[in-house]
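Record minuted for everyone:
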Amino acid sequence: MRLDKFLKVSRLIKRRTVAKDVSDQGRVWINGRDAKASTTVKVGDELAIQFGQKKVTVRVEALAESTRKEDAAQMYTLLKEEAYQPE
């Protein structure tokens, strides 16, 4: 599944166009490597996403083409949430 679609379906980011913009700006990493919107996401991957002054790290648990709002949080496990300090 494409990264931008996963971010939207899992509701980590509300809209796919915003997810595409965020990943193309270099604010998303998969397993420690920069990721673009078209990068393939697999179960077990660790995603790090920078939201302003916050960096969230999650592990992909499931992939689905669509999901209900109540079930979206089951697609990932929150590993870490920390204040982001630019390098």
User: Anything to note?
Assistant: Residues 16-24 form the longest helix (9 residues). Residues 10 and 73 are 6 Å apart (CA to CA).
